Amino acid sequence: MEEIVKFLKAAETYYLATVEGDQPRVRPFGTAHIFEGKLYIQTGKKKDVSKQLHANPKAELCAFKGGEWIRVAGELVEDDRVEARESMLDAYPSLKKMYAADDGNTEVFYFKNGVATISSFTHEPKVIKF
């Protein structure tokens, strides 16, 4: 999992795909954090992505850097504990301008049944299940 987070942080931006009805939705994200041995992302409850994940938790993200790309698939499960939100905000202090752990909007999700695949045109894919 450390390798996954290292890749995502080095890429700086990844693209998170969700589903709304029968329509895929993709948007840029930047949070990737390990808390209690799980891979977490962060968003706001007011955003469409939150509503989409609550309706259908299956999601996938993708990032590219240095000739390699990573795809991470799984189910995103909300962790409603303040400790999880605080940990994310401590890892990304710049978010504190827009979010607070107890603001009723900040939301963190962790990957359940995650599978990451790191690919390149020059090597075989590396698969990491977590």
TrEMBL record:
InterPro entries: Pyridox_Oxase_N (IPR011576), Split_barrel_FMN-bd (IPR012349). Residues 2-91 form the Pyridoxamine 5'-phosphate oxidase N-terminal domain. The lineage of its organism: Bacteria, Bacillati, Bacillota, Clostridia, Eubacteriales. Transmembrane segments: none annotated. It comes from Faecalibacterium intestinale. SUPFAM superfamilies: FMN-binding split barrel. It comes from the Bacteria. This is Pyridoxamine 5'-phosphate oxidase family protein.
